[in-house]
Amino acid sequence: MQQVLKKLVIAGLYLGLLVSGAALPIVAVAGVAATGSVKGFTSIPDQLQKPPLPQQTVLMTADGKRLATLYYQDRIEVPITEIAQVMQDAIVSIEDSRFYKHRGFDLRGTMRAFVSNASGSSVQGGSTITQQYVKNILVASATDDSAAAAATARTPARKLREMRYALAVERTMSKKEILAGYLNIAYFGAGAYGVEAASRRYFSKSANELTLPEASLLAGLVQRPYAFDPTVHPDAAKNRRSLVLSRMADLGYITRDEADKVAKQSVTELLNPTTNANGCTTSFAPYFCDYAVHVIRSSPAFGNTLAERDAFLRKGGLTIVTTLDSVAQDAAQAAVNKVIPPDDKSQKGAAITMITPGTGSIVAMAQNRTWGISGDGKTSYNYNADRSMGGTIGMQSGSTFKAFVLAAAIEQGIPASERMFAPGMGSFLGFSNCTDGAKFPEYVARNAHLEGGIYNMRTATARSINTYFVGLEQRTGICRPAEIAEALGMQTGNGANLARVPSFTLGANEVSPMRLANAYATFAAHGLYCEPRAILDITDRDGNHLPVPPMACNQVIQRKVADGVTELLHGVIEGNLYGRTGAGMSIGRDSAGKTGTTNNSAAVWFAGYTPDLAAAVWVGDPRGGYKHPMENVTINGKHYKVVYGATLPGPIWKQSMMGALKGKPKTAFDLKLPSSITGVADSMVCPTIGPIPPTATPIAHVSYPSECTLTTDTSSETIPNPSSTP
User: Fold this and answer.
1) What does the pLDDT read at residue 451?
2) Pick from 493, 498, 496: which is nearest to 480 by CA?
């Protein structure tokens, strides 16, 4: 009994302070504890700091289409003028009927709660709308679990703090402002925070359109959002609505007849629920959307730490305009799905990234998968991006890397017309390590179908002759091509530098389509490299433009070098060079590109560009290309003995490019070519090769030029003509 009396004394002192000295008539045993508690109470700041409430964030495409909605709390703040008056009346009736009369707390309700709490029965409510608003603000302001727990603890101390702040709020805000704040912060169940989100969630309409049956239903939810959720517990929701209607009638907001009439109406027939998608999973471009979110979570422009960047997203209320172009995205998605449907029995994957040269803007990112954790044709991995951005460790690039050896050769002045002998298979000697100059062991390379002969840079590029490019790489060295590739943004899928090995030119490095597309976009932009970008603009809830990573471009190779590569890659698609691998990829406008096929067709590629758009396509098996190669495989109902870069990636590239560029002006390449490309060279050179491997027997029909010499570890001699060898 003494403890109860002591609590009542403390309560009386607190309440006395709150009502400017009108203490309760209980003055028996205050004690030191009461004095200390009162001192603690008076030390509470009387100004409530109101943080921005978490709201929806909307991601948009560059051409104005909604890409996705993200939220930590599904909330759309609206002014009181955008909330139906009947909704205002309903919430006041059921939550705080004396709202327009008190100064922040209701003395009668508060005393009733204090007496009950002090007697040790149960902690009762008695909170006014202002106090509830304060409590929600304190929860939203909590920076850790302990602060959040203190803001919701069922203790008299929490109540007293709320009352202190409630008095301050009533001095600085009008009743309508407080009511709007409460209606925007309250939780209405089913994931809906605030009355606008709740109105859309349950009725698919805005809060300013709410009717009496709808408003009374919503008003009843805030006390116990799950228990009264009409989509889960319609009977309980109906009973609760009847109580709201009765209170509205008691207070004169509606007539008793109106209350009785509405109370009889079905709750389930009233509902028109809408589930508001949250996140990238339901976006029409989920993998790009996920990439864009990764960009924000990794960029210092949005916070110095990951925690700060996550808080930036959780706060929400943002409109994020991305670089995605819906026309290009639709074209790319249609192409990958057409060539290899997501549910194809082969389980082969396809991915394409499209980037605009000179800006780095990613305009499309598609793959033949549906976003999902499990199931056929589903994945949450982005095949287009590096592992750090939600992607994979990359896929071997095949002959698409020959473009970087071309760049090094042009830079060093090696004539494009200079002829070089390329055996169908050969052991190549003399490669040096880029770190200490140590020699690599002999490297064996072979051509598709063991084709050999004499080629210049144009014909070898058009026909993708492996041994020619290994020989060319001997002349440039393996260091400079790798340096150029890295200057154009290439790195391995796990973020490492490229391996400097003799097989570099044939695509030993595992890379992502996004980086390869951007590297080729650099050739299209005459050597101007621009970092890939996904975010164009961000505005906050007040319409203020926030800093975003700027377009970052730098001239990384000479224009004449980039233009020389373009001229040679142009001959892969266009022109009349016999056997060019991209002959079927013409899109009716200036274009350049390169096929890529790894050993055993573990991964196949096509990368190419016009002056206005670049794209890279990968096709392979996400389960592991070498375990599941594309040889003797049936894809989309068609059997393939071997899949090459021009077989499936090429058509995806062609369809995507034509769709993305449809209706746009045809732009011609504006090339400034070096003399090594335009000049004429009659000389013939040979790579440094060792003895022809025994497996080269099938190419006995190829005559080796007498000008070439055979280099071994100990001697040099003329290569015998295999046709005369026993």
Assistant:
1) 81
2) 498
The residues near 43 (Cβ < 8 Å, ≥ 6 apart) are none
Going by C-beta distance under 8 Å and a sequence separation of 6 or more, which residues neighbour residue 101? Answer: none
Q: Running DSSP on this structure, what letter comes out for residue 553? A: E
> What residues have CB less than 8 Å from 382, skipping those under 6 apart?
287, 290, 291, 365, 367, 389, 390, 391, 392
Counting beta carbons within 10 angstroms of the beta carbon of residue 150, is it exposed (0 to 12), middle (13 to 18) or buried (19 or more)?
middle
Go through the chain and tell me how many residues it has. 726
Can you give the pLDDT at residue 705?
A: 60
The 10 Å Cβ neighbour count of residue 290 is: 24
Residue 255, pLDDT > 90, answer yes
Q: What are phi and psi of 194, to 5 degrees?
A: 85, 155
CB neighbourhood size of 157 (10 A): 14
Q: State both tokens at 136.
A: 């929600």
| Rounded Cα distance, 137 and 134, in Å | 5
DSSP conformation class of 582? T
* The pair of three-digit structure tokens given for residue 111, joined into one six-digit string: 């005393």
Q: Which two tokens stand for residue 724?
A: 């005369």
Lowest pLDDT segment from 145-149, 264-268, 551-555, 654-658: 145-149
- How far is Cα 217 from Cα 240, in angstroms, rounded to an integer? 8
Of the candidates 701, 129, 659, 438, the residue with the CA atom closest to the CA atom of residue 137 = 129
pLDDT at 696 over 60: no
What element of type H or E holds 91? helix 85-95
- Whole-angstrom CA distances from 540 to 443, 537, 543, 546, 652 are 57, 10, 5, 7, 38
Q: Which residue in the block uniquely carries the two structure tokens 């009743």? A: 175
- Strand ordering across the sheet containing 684-685: 453-455, 419-422, 684-685
What is the rounded radius of gyration, in angstroms, for the C-alpha atoms of the chain?
36
- Could you tell me the two tokens for 295? 């960009």
Alpha-carbon span 569 to 463, nearest angstrom: 11
Sheet holding 66-70, edge to edge: 66-70, 57-60, 319-322, 535-539, 545-546
Task: Please state, in angstroms and rounded to a whole number, the distance separating the CA atoms of residues 465 and 448.
Answer: 8
Pairing of strands 638-642, 362-367: unpaired
Q: Report helix, strand or coil for 658.
A: helix
Token pair 């409630």: residue? 166
In angstroms, the Cα distances linking 34 to 12, 38, 40, 116 are 10, 6, 10, 19
What SS3 state is found at 448?
helix
Going through 255-376 in order, the beta strands assigned E by DSSP cover: 319-322, 349-355, 362-367, 370-371
pTM listed for this prediction:
0.83
- The label of the residue with tokens 């390449």 reads 669
- 25 vs 1, 8, 13, CA distance in Å? 18, 10, 10
CA separation, residue 161 to residues 70, 100, 129 (Å): 33, 21, 15
At CA 30, angle to CA 115 and CA 113, rounded to 5? Answer: 15
Express each pLDDT in 642-656 by its tens digit: 999 999 999 999 999
pLDDT at 109: 61
Residue the block writes with tokens 């949005």? 302
